[in-house]
Design goal:
This protein has 162 residues and is α+β, with helices and mostly antiparallel strands. It is 16% helix and 35% strand. It contains four helices and five strands.
């Protein structure tokens, strides 16, 4: 039976925001995640990075680490916007992901729980679009900042200048 009241276009968690709807300081939390053996193995398989610091516990101990050390990009991907609400909030206005940079401040170990967040730090208006700059951060369960960085996105304006 067809339901004339149902519209797949409206099956989304938010009404879409546009560039002008966003504010500096606005935060987008990403759910926490504990780094597990399975995540380490999956990332090693996908990346092809076979350095023993990521899979040989005895090697890690000999080099002063308490456990397996996560790949840098394995840590970085915990700031993937799609893991949180940001791309859903801007679903109709998102043109693209422009760039990202990051600094790896402390090692992330197997068993660490990571808390990632994106926060708008700049809004650069253009004629029909705008660039949204977001600070990306990851803290561990000990409240230590293990990664910080920046991500930039291009969004459409709701009412572009003519």
């Amino acid at each position: 039976m067809t339901d004339a009241n149902f519209d797949p276009e409206n099956h989304k968690p938010f009404d879409s925001s546009y560039f002008e709807d966003l504010e500096i300081g606005q935060k987008f939390y990403i759910p926490s995640r504990t780094m597990t053996d399975a995540l380490f193995s999956a990332f090693q398989l996908a990346s092809g990075d076979n350095h023993p610091i990521h899979y040989d516990i005895e090697y890690c101990k000999r080099h002063g680490h308490r456990g397996l050390v996560a790949h840098g990009f394995q840590t970085l991907i915990q700031t993937a916007p799609g893991a949180g609400w940001f791309p859903f909030v801007v679903s109709d206005s998102l043109v693209g992901f422009l760039e990202q940079s990051s600094r790896f401040l402390k090692p992330v170990y197997n068993g660490d729980t990571l808390y990632s967040m994106l926060e708008i730090t700049a809004l650069e208006e253009q004629r029909s679009t705008g660039v949204v700059t977001m600070k990306s951060t990851i803290h561990n369960q000990d409240r230590e900042l293990v990664l910080d960085g920046e991500q930039k996105f291009l969004l459409k304006k709701r009412n572009p200048a003519s």
